[in-house]
Automatic annotation (TrEMBL):
Single GO MF descriptor: cysteine-type endopeptidase activity
Protein name (record): MALT1 protein
Keywords, sorted A to Z: Disulfide bond, Immunoglobulin domain
Signal peptide: none
Organism expressing this protein natively: Falcunculus frontatus
Domain Caspase family p20: 203-247
InterPro entries documented for this protein: Caspase-like_dom_sf, Caspase-related_regulators, Ig-like_dom, Ig-like_dom_sf, Ig-like_fold, Ig_sub, Ig_sub2, Pept_C14_caspase
Domain Ig-like: start-end pairs: 5-81, 105-185
GO term, biological process aspect, one: proteolysis
Gene that produces this protein: Malt1_0
PROSITE patterns assigned: CASPASE_P20, IG_LIKE
């Protein structure tokens, strides 16, 4: 008969403020009774957590660490769960996370406006808390940037066409939240950032789109953001220079 151990529920990475209490969970099935042992790794130091022999590992967030759980049976078979990251934010503004936080993404770092010469690197950065840890997706002028799926957006050698309005969406199983939109200006070397590039007799078509989804006395709306993105894409195909603004 098979003595294989199958992990049926993997622990999940989280991104939380310092002092936050939560539980990492691991579940497994086997043909005999199973034993659990949790390990943690800080920088290059990996060690067994004394007394952490249950399926659930209660944690009070203190510092960013990696965790895994070893499951073994009476036949000396053993498997390890996925390594998961517990990211701990030491400096979080007062009032974050909000009361009754259920783990939905909360933006704690917004990107900032950048002016860069063409050919130079561009870095934009954001961060969000969430349980599970949020995934990230960057957009420029409402268009999804396929390769930009990390907290840091990095372009090694910028082009003038990289100019535009950038923002990032942080999402997990509880919902999604958007960073502020910021303008990035990529200029030709030794040239002013804004140039008049219209020929005599040629009229430039410029579209200004404004989407507002944060109202003082109404829950956040997501449709205006998506509408701006979709309209930006369509108008761009029609030859418009699109300026997208949010909130």
């Amino acid at each position: 008969f098979s003595t294989a151990i199958t992990i049926t529920e993997q622990p999940v990475s989280v991104s939380v403020p310092v002092g936050y209490s939560f539980v990492l969970r691991c579940r497994a099935q086997g043909c005999t009774s199973l034993q659990y042992q949790w390990f943690c790794q800080y920088q290059s130091d990996c060690h067994l957590i004394p007394g952490a022999t249950n399926q659930d590992l209660p944690i009070i967030a203190e510092q960013t660490q990696l965790y895994t759980c070893r499951v073994n049976d009476l036949h000396r078979n053993a498997v390890f769960s996925d390594w998961v990251k517990v990211e701990v934010h030491q400096c979080v503004a007062r009032g974050l996370p909000p009361q009754l936080w259920r783990g939905e993404p909360v933006i704690i770092l917004n990107p900032s406006e950048q002016r860069v010469e063409a050919g130079q690197p561009l870095q934009l950065q954001c961060a969000a808390m969430g349980v599970p840890a949020p995934s990230y997706q960057w957009y420029r002028n409402g268009n999804l940037l396929e390769q930009q799926k990390r907290k840091k957006l990095w372009i090694t050698h910028t082009k003038v066409s990289d100019s535009g309005t950038y923002l990032c969406c942080a999402s997990n199983s509880h919902g999604e939240h958007w960073t502020n939109a910021v303008d990035v200006h990529i200029g030709e070397q030794n040239q002013p950032t804004l140039l008049c590039c219209t020929s005599p007799g040629v009229t430039r078509k410029i579209a200004l789109l404004v989407g507002n989804n944060r109202y003082q006395h109404h829950p956040n709306l997501m449709a205006p953001v998506r509408d701006v993105f979709e309209l930006s894409r369509l108008l761009g195909h029609l030859g418009f220079q699109v300026v997208s603004l949010l909130d």
